[in-house]
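Re: magnesium ion structure - here you go.
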Amino acid sequence: MAGGVVGVDIGSSFLRAVEIDDASKARPTLLRAHEVPLPDGSVKRGEILEVHTVASAFKRLWSAGGFRSKEVALGIGGQSVIVRDFAVPRIPLAQIKESLPYQVQELLPVPVSDAVLDYYPIGEGQNESGPIVNGLLVAAFKQAVSVNVTAATLAGLTPVSMDLLPFAMTRVHTLSSPTSGFAVHMNIGANATSIVIVQAGVPLFVRIVPAGGDDATRAIMTRLSVPRERAEALKRDLGLTGAGSTDEERLAAEVIHESTSELLTAVRNTLAYFAGVRTGVAFDHLSVAGGATRLRGLASALAESTRISVVPVNPTAGVSVARSMRGHDSNEQMQTWITAIGLAVGSAA
Ligand SMILES: Nc1ncnc2c1ncn2[C@@H]1O[C@H](COP(=O)(O)OP(=O)(O)OP(=O)(O)O)[C@@H](O)[C@H]1O
Ligand SMILES: [Mg+2]
């Protein structure tokens, strides 16, 4: 598909969009980027709960961001999608896809008829019953897919693609730090942490862990009986490196450490699971993005906990940045748009 397209990342705290000139180009130009906050509770764990609220956020995003294209590349993630390693007898891909509804019910928490199923082959192998294909089964809940589409169409936009959020962010991470070996790509958001393991840039394994930066904020709110704004400010001030000088700060620092250590344990368990299934895996690096990554000291805690070297992501690795973007094109600011860029860039596929 030629022509401009806008990638829109529907997060739990922000609606974020970037416009590129042409997704079919090898190196599209990034023309515009903008974000608007989403009212509390309108999107939860990757699922739109208030479609009209989100539709008006889309409208605000378009008028404030000056986007020209009305074609949007949407994503789906959070608790609205399940990704599982899945091996099937070796038959043509079209046939594999057709047979999915009859094979996957036991893997899903919802009736097969309520899910949109897809399959990404990774490699070929052999088991007791013959040749097999190893791959990833992706099951997205129909309800979540259609509510995303509705939010955009209510705002007068035309959805042209729908991709997995973890795949979208992986696209940018892989361009930023390519390797022929194994790498871990992560996005830590407010309520969801996506973990993708790739080999030579191909996703082998995907997990979406229901944990993120808001866990610490909520824990501070409860334990210290303070409002959200205060809890958020304490978290940002202290991070993992501040000890605090008042009783309140000291307790908050403790809570941040506890909550972060739960997140790190979840990450470690996920990597350990993968290492148990695929022996002899050595990770080249771990790249991480997402708002929660800004927590001071998190990157080094992650490196220490996983024993993998943590590298930053260059958000514009796969695109050229238009002159009109200068002004908010610092690497730090662009970090915010990694998933939206991945959605836009991937929409031609
Ligand atoms: N400077 C900072 N220090 C610590 N945490 C921060 C900082 N800035 C943002 N965060 C945290 O980042 C999180 C939001 O991240 P992000 O914007 O990536 O989430 P989202 O995309 O809206 O949500 P999700 O991906 O989970 O749906 C919040 O928990 C917020 O507290
Ligand atoms: Mg996000």
